[in-house]
Design goal:
Layout (H helix, E strand, L loop, with lengths): L2 H38 L4 E5 L2 H15 L11 E5 L5 H8 L5 E5 L5 H12 L3 E5 L5 E4 L12 E4 L2 E3 L6 H23 L33 H29 L1 H16 L4 E4 L3 H15 L4 E3 L4 H10 L7 H7 L5 E6 L5 H12 L3 E6 L4 H5 L5 E4 L5 H19 L6
Parallel strand pairs: 1-2, 1-3, 3-4, 4-7, 8-9, 8-10, 10-11, 11-12
Antiparallel strand pairs: 5-6
Helix pairs in contact: 1-5, 1-6, 2-5, 2-8, 3-4, 5-6, 5-13, 6-7, 6-13, 7-13, 8-13, 10-11
Length: 414
Amino acid sequence: MMPALASAAIERRRLAGEAFFGGEAERIARLCHRMAERFARGGRLFALGADPASRSDARHVAVEFVHPVIVGKRALPALALTAEGGPIACQLGLLAAEQDMVIAFGAERDPSTRKALGIARERGALTIACGGVSGEVHAAGACEGVGGEVHAAGEVDWSFQLPGEDANVEQELAETLYHVLWELVHVFFEHRGLLEGRSERHVHDTGASSFLYPFLGEQEHDIEAVIADVRASVLMKGGEASALRAQTLTEAAPTLADAALALRRSFDGGGRLLALGNGGSATDAMDLVADLHSAQRPALDLTEDTGILTAIANDIGTEAIFSRQVIAHGRPGDVLLAFSTSGGSANVIHALAQARSRELATIALVGYDGGRIYQEQLADHVVVVRSEHIPRIQEAQASAYHVLCELVGGEARA
């Protein structure tokens, strides 16, 4: 990747990030407060995604809220509803209740998701649309067995319009948005007196959380002061994400160019890409495969089949969940692309070793200092995102694999 192309990719992301978070920081802060209130009252978060790209975002939301990586933070009830379970509106109609929250991706492309948002509003749930829904949402003909015809119309409670005409950059902004919502909703649990229906009023001891949330010591009667601090944190996190994307794309430009060449040669020779990762990285593998399928490129998502994953984990062990699939599917001339925020996930390392033994080219996207994968050169092409904060690592990795796909596709822009 030429320096000019890398600079153009970085600049598109910088401008979009500044425009979005600069314009939406206040609303994001207030949404975190509203979500915390509903979680505190027993509400659940449903993430909706019908098409392949939206599905990966919905599943990423569920993983982040249920499996917190911040030590000591509570697991929050979240569930992804995707097209595998049938029409989105039918699924949500069976599950949604008044205290719940619904965040939708790609609703502008899927009528059933739009209907689901209407059902949610009719039941009193808080609705969030990410990516293009504005104006009225009509829920009609939702699903037999969940109330028949639902005639609910109204605006989505919180609609976030992602700037720009670049779908990759929009997805990256969406990922940062829901990471920030997840990170900062916890602030209000530390200020329980600020949640609707609560009467506690005390000054919180920030303790071990002080390095993440230095403003937790605010008086609990001053909601606007906390909102202002959360707004500042939103802007800070948006800036951190943009800076890390720029650093990663700059440092990794030669590696991405070489990896793109290897991947293009594989595709030209009849090869396929196999993608894998754990947790949020699994949803990144899902998104990468969706992007390649959209470009008419053959790719397999080794995180896709829960039956296979659980069978291998149960009968052999979690370290074999990917390597066993590489044995089954990998062919000489294929390419394995692995995500690992730590650079040391045992099941990822085993899969890379199996891929090399079977003459697959290997690409790895890793975080921190690169871990074993980088230090021991366990993959042919290693992109290191130099951060210790998992959400920011995943966001920069998304930029890296989007640029990789663009290079492989032969587009003029990076």
